């Protein structure tokens, strides 16, 4: 198996590393800040992870990625509720403010 470098030890970096380890990869995490650190530069202790890709991806691609993420996190919450609670994984409402209109998401 390849050796994979994960950059960042926030919510997303740690979960990515965990999933790669579960899949059998060797993983190294490179991070300036770690869980337990209190720094304004380390967002995870202060804010949850919001997975919404930015950049030039089409809205169709973005919507597809978001639905995959939603299903992934919901599955963890449903199949491993104790672990999810211990890790602080929960679904919360989000209000997204933008300067442009966004298409409505497909039904869940």
From TrEMBL:
Pfam families: DAO. Keywords: FAD, Flavoprotein, Oxidoreductase. It comes from the Eukaryota. Residues 4-79 form the FAD dependent oxidoreductase domain. GO terms for molecular function: D-amino-acid oxidase activity; FAD binding. GO terms for cellular component: cytoplasm. Its cofactor is FAD. Signal peptide: none annotated. Gene3D superfamilies: NAD(P)-binding Rossmann-like Domain (3.40.50.720). GO terms for biological process: D-amino acid catabolic process. The keyword Membrane does not apply. Belongs to the DAMOX/DASOX family. PANTHER family: D-AMINO ACID OXIDASE (PTHR11530), D-ASPARTATE OXIDASE (PTHR11530:SF11). This is FAD dependent oxidoreductase domain-containing protein. It comes from Pseudopithomyces chartarum.
